[in-house]
Fold:
Amino acid sequence: MEIDELKRDWLDQDFDEMEFEAKAEEIVDFATASGETAPRFVDPSHPDFQAPPTFVTRFHGRRLLPEEFPKLGLPLDAGKAVIQKRPIRAGSRLLGRSHLHDIYEKTGRSGRMVFLVSRMELYEDGQLASIVDSRMVIREKPTG
Amino acid sequence: MSGKAFSDIEFGEDLPAFKPDTSLANVTKFAKAVGMMTGRFTDHEAARKQGLPGAIVPGIMSQAMLAALVHRWAQNATIEKIDTIFRAPVLVDQEHAISGVVTDMDEDEHRIEIDLTLENAAGETRVLGTATVRLP
Structure:
């Protein structure tokens, strides 16, 4: 399947929407288990208590790809990027909307690999709070 | 470590490395906090049955550990973006080290870029990252 065709048919269309809540206990456990020591991440009584920037990666939608997206192969986790626009506080209620943000390919000795970037934008009170890009790689099945 | 100012930072500066807690108990605590209580993260035997050498650290935990290095170095740092590549599994109950180095500085915006690496005891890179960080 041609990459240009996939981009034309699938990019920038919302395919999932879910609501999430940031809970203080989960923020503290996430922060302490990952080695954070700054009081603003590990002490709920701190006046600037907030989630570490990558806490939002714990929010998962119902799916990583649109329901009818072509089955190119098994998608493997290739990486993740988080862009923080504003702090996530305990009790924050977030609306996550997902779309395919990018599709590109790389060709190596073992054949073509297709990269898919699924983007979840998280909004609080209508303001963009955080962006999570999940990169998946699919090693194309050899044909013939 | 307390807060830092942009003027304190030098291009090429190494962040003090730290050894993350990759024990089964700690990874299980993280998995519970993020709703990922599956055998591949919390049970060596279950992970082996899935073809893995043992339980593995969730990718998002490795990423959070890279972010923690930045905050342990400068508690007041604001990470605006962190991008991570999961190159190979990070095995639970094995020693790892996280390191970082300042690779770019924008004096006008007080932003710096930090390359981050998570290695196992053999010195093999398992996870790579880049953080864009703002300091006062």
